[in-house]
Amino acid sequence: MASNSTAAAPSGDGSADEVLHEFGIVRVYKSGRVERPLAAPPVAPGLDAATGVESRDVQLGAYSVRLYLPTSAAAAPSAKLPIIVYVHGGGFVAESAASPGCHRFVNTLAAACPALAVSVEYRLAPEHPLPAAYDDSLAALKWTLSAAADPWVAAHGDLGRVFVAGDSAGANICHYLAVHPDIVNNAADGRRLKGAVLIHPWFWGSEAVGGEPSHPAARAMGARLWLFACPGADGGMDDPRMNPMAPGAAPALGAMACERVMVCVAEHDFLKWRGQAYAEAVAAARGAEGSGSVELMETEGEGHVFYVFKPDGDKAKAMVDRIVSFVNAP
């Protein structure tokens, strides 16, 4: 699982302590040392006492996944469960599948559905600039979709009910997965993803939508972390991975490789306008079926990824309930 810092040899003149980049969740020094000061210690896999979900890590080369198996799998071993491929947030630069908040949420979701979950531990920027996180997540989804991916997946997973889900930067990655040609081509062969759940997705763009600030300086400030994580971004903040509604990018919304889409936003999250616009754009691109295949949920009075910080609150539980209903819908 990801480390919270990387070390570099001291220069001897004190310049190694000079901070070159500061984003709060990640700090980079002149020496090359990287710190993630807000990252909590990782949580080991195993049996979760609160939910009864069992988890274990599988190393897959440059990346890994954490698998979650609910108790219902043991109670009815022949029954097949929906599969949720979960991608954590953290601005592409922080957090982990083993972060306490992510681990707890996936345990809760796996138990509530119930579902077999595959949580992706992708490589982080700046040590591994984008597209590393996209590449790792795509490889993890393909690994999951392979019939012999893992004994748990083979024995308990329903490959006809595979969902991608994620929060913030992870939701951004989920969009990337759903429109990737390799996954779209699978859909054309009848192996379509059942759905995508984008929780408080991190999208941006040069032009403001809804109540976003329109001043160019504010637009640029909103894109700083993205451009840091993806220094080779085509089109800057209008790279189609960051702005799915950019000119030339929007047509892909109609070809998403999933039957249904759910977008969750929060009233006090500055990204909510972009999430709402994304849901509307997907519905419009789908034409007549759009209104029935795209679901938008707004949580009032809360901010970005509030459920990570207040997992026992009524609003977090309500959001989980809506996601469970989405996963279990016919």
Automatic annotation (TrEMBL):
UniProt source species: Urochloa decumbens
Active site positions, chain numbering: S168
Protein name, entry field: Alpha/beta hydrolase fold-3 domain-containing protein
PANTHER family: ARYLACETAMIDE DEACETYLASE, OS02G0567800 PROTEIN
Segments forming domain Alpha/beta hydrolase fold-3: 84-307
Origin superkingdom: Eukaryota
